[in-house]
Amino acid sequence: MTPVRIAIVGSRRLPQERARAIIFGGVAGTPEDAVIVSGGARGPVGSKTTVSADREAARAARFYRRTLDEYPVTAAEWNTLGMRAGPERNQRIVDSLSGPEDRMVCLWDGVSAGTRDVGQRAEWAGVRVRVVVVRG
Fold first, then answer.
1. Residues 96 and 37 sit within 8 Å (Cβ to Cβ)
2. Per-residue pLDDT tens digits for 15-68
3. What is the mean pLDDT of residues 64-86?
4. In 21-62, where do the E strands start and end?
5. Secondary structure of the chain: what % helix, strand, coil (to 5)?
6. Can you state the angle between helices 53-63 and 16-28, rounded to 10 degrees?
């Protein structure tokens, strides 16, 4: 049986305590063979109050010993694709969710266009999506 793939994606400046509680709590409840999918987006450097959903998903996957599958945008992709690099990465994340139990959780600050984009792409592809609005 193929392990369930759960994409945990979202905004890059989420309130730290709330985002961590949601993400770590969610990953803790996943099957041991689950694959956590992340966009690998960096959050604010040096902030003690905000975090990136993608980075926290990766941390939670490692903490709970889940397999991690990251889709970061490389510097070369930004240089080659420009503003299309983010949406292209978002589509790769959505395309990786092909199993009947695969799903996506979007932690959205209510503003991020990238989070809105990946969530819409997943819905259009028929992926189960849960959007959690997290504002500071």
1. yes
2. 999 999 999 999 999 999 999 999 998 877 778 899 999 999 999 999 999 999
3. 92
4. 35-38, 50-51
5. 40, 20, 35
6. 40
Instruction: Tell me if 24 sits within 8 A of 60, measured CB to CB.
Output: yes
Copy the structure tokens of residue 103.
């799903």
70 class by beta-carbon count within 10 Å (0-12 exposed, 13-18 middle, 19+ buried): middle
| pLDDT for residue 136 is more than 80 | no
Q: Look at residue 95 and give its three-state secondary structure.
A: helix
Strand ranges (E), 1-136: 5-10, 14-15, 35-38, 50-51, 67-70, 103-108, 128-133
User: CA 40 to CA 44: how far, in whole Å?
Assistant: 13
The dihedrals phi and psi of 4, each to the nearest 5 degrees, come to: -70, 140
Is residue 75 within 8 A of residue 42, CB to CB? The reply is no
Place of tokens 């941390």: 59
How far apart (Å, rounded) are the C-alpha atoms in residues 87 and 23? Answer: 23
Higher-confidence residue of 1 and 91: namely: 91
- Enumerate the domain spans of the chain: 25-72, 73-104+115-131
